[in-house]
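Protein record

Derive tokens from sequence
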Amino acid sequence: MTPLRLSGIQKSLLVVLTWVAFGPALAAPPSFLTFESGQVRPLAMSPDGSRLFAVNTPDNSVSVFKVEDSGLTLQAKVTVGLEPVAVAARGNDELWVVNHLSDSVSVVSLTGTPRVVRTLLVGDEPRDIVFAGPKGRAFITTAHRGQHRTHPSLSGVPGAGDPQLTTPGVGRADVWVFDPANLGTTLGGTPVRILNLFGDTPRALTVSPDGRTVYAAVFKSGNQTTAVLEELVCEGFNPYLPCLVSGGIYPGGSPGPATNHQGVPAPEVALIVKYNRQFSQWQDELGRNWNNAIRFNLPDQDVFAIDADGLTQKEAFAHVGTTLFNMVTNPVTGTVYVSNTEANNHVRFEGPGVFGGTTVQGHLAETRITAILAGEVMPRHLNKHLDYAKLASEPGFDPTAKAHSLATPLDMVVSRDGRTLYVAAYGSSKVGVFDTQALESDSFNPRLNSAAYIPVSGGGPSGLVLDEARGRLYVMTRFDNAVKVIDLATRSEVGQQVLFNPEPVSVVQGRPVLYDAASFSANGEASCSSCHIFGDMDDLAWDLGNPDDDVTQNPISGRLLATATLLKPHINGSGKVSDFHPMKGPMTTQTMRGMSTSGPMHWRGDRSNGFFGVSGSDPNLSFMNFIVAFEGLLGRASKPTLTEMQRFTDFQLQVVLPPNPVRNLDNSLTVAQQRGLNFYAGSRRSDGLPLGEGLGFTCEGCHRLDPSKGFYGTDGQVSFENIPQIVKIPHLRNLYQKVGMFGNANTPFFMAPDSGWMGNQVRGFGMVHDGAVDTIARFLSAIVFIPSIGVGFPLNNPDGTRRDVEQLLLAFDTDLAPIVGQQVTLSSTNAASVGPRIDLLLQRARTPFTSKILGGVVKECELVAKVALGGRVKGFLYNPTGNAFIPDDGSTTTVSDATLRGYAKTAGQEVTYTCVPPGSGARIGLNR
């Protein structure tokens, strides 16, 4: 019988009816979720130059273009995993695609029907891939965590196993190595080795010209800055009066000023220090030695050289940059070029810098390319023409300087003669062009060199491929999701291929405001993404108070505020519970993901009172109030328009956090995590004073956990916790990302003892608002949690309970179930190992899940399957009510689980299953 063919309207109706069949919900979940994954290597070319490959991040696909003298022609589009960010060609007919959210690599065959033939499972948030060495092995960067690294199938793999999230001195950067000729028949492929590097999460890879050395770079590697705990900064504002705290001698109080310009006393705060390598000292801006306060060392190793054959680390290069984006090697000299930015977070204050004397306005992070040659690390500032001493509001500022600037340098490529380097400037809508000798010698002049820069339409250039045989440069532009063809002779755009984009218009229109330094900063270098890297954190703390600003009022309701002035007479500096003092001290950069249900923004909820008005609960208004940062931080002479700011708000409030990579894929808790939850949500008050009812709270009573309301640690209120400022209760969804700083001195506020010397660590900032607390366990030892009768941790084994709660917090609930994004490919040879995982995906697609951003009660995921049948890849969507799969051809006949698995018994009919976010199943599985 001929299958029923439906029109577009009829198919849309079928999708609606299909959703209805999935069961009741409070509201239909969105058909698209924005994760804002940063592209790393979005373009690649086949070795013979006949094909160009482009990842389509929002569409979870890769496009295959035929390359001809007349331009690009689309040949195929293959669905891969969620949020693909990198692609590499293995020969002319095979692609490997890195899927950032799915924690997987899709092996795509272009022989016959283009399709996924294998899915490799790796660590959390993979980012880049290269092939190297005499065996052509695949190297893939991932974070040192994720559910798969402890899977039994990897028990014999060197480097696999427990990520040791609570163990000091552990590298958090992994490189998974696979032999493409011997992937095995295990669940997600069997890696040869998982290499561990002593840094935080890695991003970029590159290969030496002889293919024998792989270079891996840490993404947000830091810059040897950290925070001194507030209690170790001597009381008051006399910087040269030492004090004794818990047996340690410290050099003095805050550098000041002691008040803002109104004369209102400032609060006591922590202090950012930077390691002075010349004097081997942790120093503040006054040059004071804080070595007694810091219990660890930051080697700041940024780039690692790996023997591609022996799979051992050969060398490490330090001080390459703060945030490292991409790498490329010179094919002639072997020089490694690293695109990066260098943060100025050790400089205090935003605003004009009049009363405080310093400011980072317009000088947040410098755009650089660092060259590494013969062991020498040579940072090169690409915008050295900028005069940071002149603010846009001051006489003498040069408004034309921004025309020569480059912002957020990402992908790079070098000509085959080694003489020319091209760099995609994501925040400038340009491709920078440099003579490599001039770059390495630092003899280039940006005002002159900028004449060679190539403007790119669409915005957000993120990937480059050089086609010298045709005199072209191919550029991926993320803002319009397109591939541009550049004629290198004329440096002009001669063609484009626009990729399908399922993102809402509001996301597409609002994204540029986050990144566009040319439009939204004074000097063309700074943007909101200078600190909020791809809308996330930079893993640093900044003291962005403004002594030139006024005290404002906090409209947010709170807990335990009545006890604040009793215990802290100088709360908030002014002694007033409701004050927002403009001098707030160091605060770690918070993620701008997952904010739509968390209430007011900033650590104190500062943006609840601002330019557009006052509200203690409205996230839209709170984000709109960020408008002042464009002048105070980015140095812009004027604010964005209301329309521009609303576009930014509409975009950013749609960006969500990923699933928790520590929590079990079946959403269950370990024994320790369950014990932690029992205490967290139990009846025993863990916070407050045992002076009567209403003065203490359970963990959950303060850090609310209510998925139906979008509360994952916070309900948007503030709380007094016996520290010098009233701080908003924070969400707890991304604590696992802050692991890697171990070592604190003893203070009266924490019952945990002095850690002693902890040696080398990978992060300079840890927990709480200023990043000065090293671990969750230490935070849970605060005096507000002191064990006593009826309040605080139990008298019987309090440390054991703390460790249990720590385990819970590392695996804390999020808006998405941990199964979201997970995928696997069933073939004719791996049914025994893959079958149980398919069973798990089916089970989770039937399991109820509550999430406010998903519309209420949904399923944990929607299960999509793809298989090559009859000359095309056919899509299927699992219907849990009917326990069968709906085909994408409009047929009314569903397919059983057994039938779908049976397809894979035939060679060339591999079935790839993916658990996609609730609401996305019809779009990904049927609407192709």
